[in-house]
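INFO  loader      accepted 1 record
INFO  loader      residues=229
INFO  predictor   begin
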Amino acid sequence: MLDEIPDIKGIDIAVHYNPASTVGGDFYNILKCHKGHAGFIIGDVSGKGLLSALFLVRFMREFQKISLCQETLTDIMKKTNEMVYNKTRNGTFITMVFMIYNPENRLLFYTNAGHPPPLLWNSDTGIFSWLNRASVPPLGISRDISIEIERIQLNPRDCLVLYTDGLVEARDNEGSLYGFKRLERVVRQAASGAKEIIEKIVEDLNSFNVSPKYRDDLTILTFCVKDEP
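INFO  predictor   done
INFO  writer      dumping tokens
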């Protein structure tokens, strides 16, 4: 995980990371790439406990060897999938969203390997959309996968909310699901800044009173496009 969020031109970034125990299966990264591009990664290793955490450590060590800022999203995901597939035979897999953002033209490219869909929200228009295209199976299930890439033109005050399933799959003591609709409603009530959105989500999740038996690792990564690039 990051000790410090990199300063990337034209966007406001915030992260909340809270493992359910001393070892967690969530991971994220924010990359400042060549030509001012930014890379955003969020993911989750299947299972819980020490074995998943140890697998995550090995995965992150190998993942750093892949040229995240130099290769295409297609090549990155194919190499990552092959690496995960070759490293495990016990049914462990990884869900992951990988995004590349160009601040100069505000173009976003993303692909999603079995992870909950990111939420795109514009605080000026109030328009929401779930980024549920460019979806492929989780990494490590099959050796060969076909990668899909989606391109989106972002606008000023657009905000992307990336998260792990510890948010939308949380349940209270009565078994009620936190869910996607509640997340939409909470983000709509938040201010337009990345930090403010995360604070609003975490505050609402705390008031939801998640049952201990449903508590999971929680990671939220948010970035907002500033008015001026």
